[in-house]
Amino acid sequence: MDPEPVLRAVDCVTIPVPDLDTGLAFYANSLGHELLWRDETTGQAGLRLPDTETELVLTATAPYAPAWLVDAVPTAVNSLVAAGATVRRPVTEIPVGRLAVVTDPFGNDLVLLDLSTGRYR
């Protein structure tokens, strides 16, 4: 029997910006993306992508990357490690749930996120 897929959806795509105000001037004010939330403590702001639940997350602190939504980060990390991935950043509590980063056998970082405490509002 095939295993249940670990990666459920793309939760967000992070886009590095020099600072949130500059990023918001371009992506929200010039391109029309609606601001959903802003968190100064993480240096991030979430914008609506109108045809999906995937968010565009402007960040002053993280690289350009998709964040993969999983059911539970600890379980996903265990499954990925058993399949040959390595842990780059262990499971960490974040305001919306838990996050970890693993590297697949081909050198690709996978940002894993669960929304165990809910989405930003």
Strand content: 35-45%
- Number of helical elements: 2
Main β-sheet, in a few words?
8 strands, mixed
Overall CATH architecture: Roll
Return the domain count.
1
Folded structure, characterized:
- This is VOC family protein.
- InterPro entries: Glyas_Bleomycin-R_OHBP_Dase (IPR029068), Glyas_Fos-R_dOase_dom (IPR004360), VOC_core (IPR037523).
- Residues 9-115 form the VOC domain.
- It comes from Occultella glacieicola.
- The protein is α+β, with helices and mostly antiparallel strands and 121 residues long.
- It is 17% helix and 41% strand.
- It has helices spanning 20-30, 73-82; strands spanning 9-16, 35-39, 44-48, 55-59, 65-69, 86-94, 97-103, 109-114.
- It has an 8-stranded mixed beta sheet with strand order 2-3-4-1-5-8-7-6.
- The model has no long low-confidence stretch (mean pLDDT 94).
Give a brief description.
This protein has 121 residues and is of the alpha+beta class. It is 17% helix and 41% strand. The chain has helices at residues 20-30, 73-82, and strands spanning 9-16, 35-39, 44-48, 55-59, 65-69, 86-94, 97-103, 109-114.
Provide key terms for this protein.
VOC family protein; 2 helices; VOC_core; elongated; 2,3-Dihydroxybiphenyl 1,2-Dioxygenase, domain 1; 121 residues; eight-stranded mixed β-sheet; Glyas_Fos-R_dOase_dom; 41% strand; alpha+beta; 8 strands
